[in-house]
Amino acid sequence: MRRRYYGMLYLLIYVVALKVVLSITADIAFFGWGLVYDLVIVMFFVGGVGFFLHSLKAQKILYIAVGLLITIFVVGDSMYYGYFETLSARSSFHGIVFLGSGNTEEYDLTFPLVGYLVSPLLIGYLLVIIKTKHKDVYLLRDFAVLSLVFFVQVVLFISWGNETYETKLAYYKSDAYLYDSMHDRSLYSSKYGYVMYHLIDFTRIRPVSDPLSDKEIIDDFYEQENFTHDLNAYSDLYEGYNVITILAETLDTRFIDSVLTPNLYMMREEGMNFTDFYTPVFQQGATCNSEFMSLTGLSAITTNDWANNICDAYTENVYPYSLPAQLSEVGYDTYYFHSGYEWFYDRVNLMPNMGFETVKFREDLIGEYPDFDDRFDTNMMLFMDEFVTYEEPFMINLLSYSMHGAYNQSEFNIHSDRVDEAYPDTTLPSEIRNYMEKLVEFDLMLGMLLDRLEEEGVLDRTVIAVYPDHNIYMMNENVYQEYIDIDLDSKELNHTDLIIYQNGMSGETINQVGSTIDITPTLLNMVYRDADFSYFLGTDLLSGKENVVLFPDLTITSGEHFLYLHDKVPPGNEALTFLEKELEKRITYLEIQKLILNSDYFALLE
Known about the structure:
By secondary structure, this protein is α/β, with parallel strands linked by helices. It has 23 helices and 12 strands. The protein has helices at about 5-25, 35-50, 55-85, 115-130, 140-160, 170, 175-180, 185-190, 195-205, 210-225, 260-270, 285-295, 310-315, 325-330, 345-355, 365, 380-385, 415-420, 430-455, 475-485, 520-525, 575-600, 600-605; strands spanning about 240-250, 270-280, 335-340, 360, 395-400, 460-470, 495-500, 510, 515, 550, 555, 560-565. The strands form 2 sheets. Strands 1, 2, 3, 4, 5, 6, 7, 8 and 9 form a 9-stranded mixed sheet that branches. It has a 3-stranded antiparallel sheet with strand order 10-11-12, with helices on one face. α15 links the parallel β3 and β4 (about 360). α1 runs antiparallel to α4 (about 115-130) and α3 (about 55-85) packs antiparallel against α4. The termini are far apart. The model is unreliable at about 95-105 (pLDDT under 50).
């Protein structure tokens, strides 16, 4: 009997073609061992099944099914990468069940580039398989050789990650960390295979943690670190003042303008403007993770584990040291408002565990106001009408919505006159213009909020913090990059402003480097200096303490210097040597952070 592998060969050629598509659309290197590993694993599993199929029709069904399955992942990942700059994971499928019940227009689901690339390849592949007239013939000895190759591959995969390293930082710089954590999904796919990435992601068994054992490790960490808070000139400067935190969805503070956004501009110029502020974007769930960091003084976690989305994984945990929880303990009324759907992330359960007593979403207004439109931030004032009382000190968190993509939403053209006024005789790219119109809507909401506080007689007793959750990642990359003149791969993309405003301020620029994790300790210092700062991994930005910012890819900055994970520090470079030492320390912080979340540490303390 003569061997014949035509169908298998066509499938492998198709897999190679799809890897070319991924190299174009998802930053997965085509050349490298990853391609070899993918071909071996496809040959092994498909050949293993095909060996027992004795009809041409059954083999065709197998080849078509495998080709379609890989195609679905390639198309999905290419689109996913276009929005989030990473590949999908098992955790990403958590949100698919919601697509039928929510508004998906914001994602601008048009026919993507990958569709044009894959469609002719898929049609050609299907036609070739369908027209094949001869069944593949697998010889047992060939399959034995393939099994031996696959066995060697399995041994390699098992052995990787078992090396020992002299320092923790050496491990994190190694390929073993990439293999263990899959922290860079595209790089992992380039080195170890795209098919292998998804196979391991779906089949890997997450280790079960021992909460009591984790608690001992965390206790030792806090005992050694001994996070203390030193009083400073801003401590209790606004004691007992109301606090409003505004997580401004997709705010890029580079667009703030005296004509386009007069309220934001006024708050920045007359308030406290933190100019060395960064917004690290922890995907997946960038908005939720930024919100979590800003309200708890804790970090999100960087991992390919499903748990890196705080709002899907740790909603049952308790956070008694968060900003709302600590203010609630001293008599503040605490409110959480978002005009979007309550099911979009599990905020409806998470926010009460952070200390918010009143938690409301669009579902809580749509019945009373059938014309309520969650996209327009000015409608958020209905929350203030319906649920807020002003007799007692209050803490309110507003999560805005208007500036979210996509940037093709014509209903925001009602603000086109403001854009024309700010940029007369200027032809703007359509997406930039639409973003500006959305930004006007957000700014109008701020103006209405300030007016409401003044009407209620509490404006002079209220501190307001405004900060972004992430950059405009849903905008066309070329359009965005050209307009702001910043390389989208640069960390400067995340360099933004934190604005803290109180009506009596006279304008102050603060150059202390900081990030989202530092907001809660900073605000608590201003309004309630006797709060418990013991468990914050963030820093009070008014303390004058030396601080750094850690990004999810383990890049670290002092504001003046940047150190990337795989950079080698030249001898005698004190600035980078300092950052390297800080990086190892902050890596420990991330490890502790994951233990805190996995063990529900604060519940154990209680």
